[in-house]
Amino acid sequence: MFKENQIRGFSNQEVSYEDFLAKLKQYSLEGFDAYIGTDSQVIKNKVSVVTCVCLYKLGAKKNEIFYIKNRVPADRLPTLRARMLHEAYKSLEAAIDIDPLIDGELIVHLDIGTDPRRSKSARFQKELQVLVRSQGFGCEVKPNSWASSSVADMFTKT
């Protein structure tokens, strides 16, 4: 996934694939965990899809964020369920790619609500959590899914 896409850092600077791999290894050696999240935003007839990798360690003075942004024709993701599945698959694809490079915990964050009265995506919660966990990864949903609902969300709008 990362090799064939343009990787960017938090400040929107381009990051080479080699530098990305080196940073992952460096942060892994320092005991950082990886949090992966994907968010999408419909803009006119396109869907902006952002997958981010957040390297985080509680109490560390540094953390790192990398992301990949793609645009998909809106007719390829015609329903909310299709978008939520696409987001989950993109996060899983990223997790599978970087899992061998991370010694710490790797957790997938899904941009899924838990209250069906307040969130249309809540009805997909169980299905998508099972999908992620069946691949051997930890999984969080709102309000604990900050990598997707805050970080990736921020980059879908830029």
Short précis:
This protein has 158 residues and is an alpha/beta fold.
Q: How does this structure look, described?
A:
The chain is α/β, with parallel strands linked by helices. The protein has a seven-stranded mixed sheet. Helix 3 links the parallel strand 6 and strand 7. It is globular and about 40 Å long.
Helix/strand layout:
Elements: E1 7-9, E2 14-15, H1 17-29, E3 33-43, E4 46-56, E5 64-73, H2 80-98, E6 106-109, H3 125-133, E7 138-140, H4 146-156
Parallel strand pairs: 3-6, 6-7
Antiparallel strand pairs: 1-2, 1-5, 3-4, 4-5
Q: What about the largest sheet?
A: 7 strands, mixed
Number of strands: 7
Report the β-strand fraction as a percent range: 25-35%
SS element count, helices: 4
Strand order of the largest sheet: 2-1-5-4-3-6-7
Low-confidence stretches: none
What string gives the helices and strands in order? Answer: EEHEEEHEHEH
The shape is: globular
Structural class: alpha/beta
Give the averaged pLDDT, no decimals.
95
> What is the CA–CA distance across the termini?
21 Å
Determine the fraction of residues in helical runs and give it as a percent range: 25-40%
How big is the Rg? 15 Å
